[in-house]
């Protein structure tokens, strides 16, 4: 999921957003450190007027995501066994001079209609896990769906400490904005 949807739905220009999409978007990134790891914890949420069924349909159409998710260049379902599948994704993450190609192979567990769990199998991350939660919601009198994204990532490449949070936050925001824009069309 892209440092973030890739960073999924992971790696996620940008299309013009409906005013309500950018107002309803909240993104938080925290860089954590342990003695031998530096990883990012991510939380993002947004609202779309689309039904949970429509959100599910769009989020699980993995091979079409490169059509609208910035920095996601390819996605291919390698295998599927019921609600579990293996997905390969290619994209570009970072910004300015810190761009790089990213390849991920992830295991996805679908729990229709409410959640999608993503776990790293291999690729350009030391750690990568993500979860999408879909909840029927109402905002400003409009019925729709609240989309919550959470993840924990540790790139297998250098991310400048001073810019890391901003890089990841920007990628996640672009991904969420692109998903919401696609849903609100």
From TrEMBL:
Keyword terms: Signal
The organism's taxonomic lineage, starting at the top: Bacteria, Pseudomonadati, Pseudomonadota, Betaproteobacteria, Burkholderiales
Organism: Actimicrobium antarcticum
Ranges for domain Coenzyme Q-binding protein COQ10 START: 50-179
Classification via InterPro entries: COQ10_START (IPR005031), START-like_dom_sf (IPR023393)
Protein's name in the database: Coenzyme Q-binding protein COQ10 START domain-containing protein
Cleaved signal peptide residues: 1-21
Keyword Transcription: no
Pfam families: Polyketide_cyc (PF03364)
Family recorded in the similarity comment: Belongs to the ribosome association toxin RatA family.
């Amino acid at each position: 999921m892209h440092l973030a949807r890739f960073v999924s739905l992971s790696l996620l220009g940008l299309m013009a957003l409906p005013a309500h999409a950018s107002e309803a978007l909240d993104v938080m990134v925290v860089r954590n450190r342990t003695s031998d790891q530096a990883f990012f914890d991510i939380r993002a949420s947004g609202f779309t007027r689309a039904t949970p069924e429509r959100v599910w349909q769009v989020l699980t159409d993995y091979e079409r995501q490169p059509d609208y998710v910035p920095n996601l260049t390819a996605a291919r379902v390698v295998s599927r066994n019921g609600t579990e599948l293996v997905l390969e994704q290619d994209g570009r993450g970072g910004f300015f001079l810190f761009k790089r190609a990213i390849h991920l192979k992830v295991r996805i567990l679908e729990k229709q209609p409410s959640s999608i769990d993503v776990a790293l199998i291999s690729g350009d991350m030391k750690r990568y896990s993500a979860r999408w939660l879909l909840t029927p919601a109402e905002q400003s009198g409009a019925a729709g769906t609240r989309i919550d994204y959470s993840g924990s990532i540790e790139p297998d490449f250098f991310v400048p400490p001073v810019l890391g949070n901003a890089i990841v936050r920007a990628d996640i925001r672009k991904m969420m904005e692109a998903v919401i824009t696609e849903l609100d069309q």
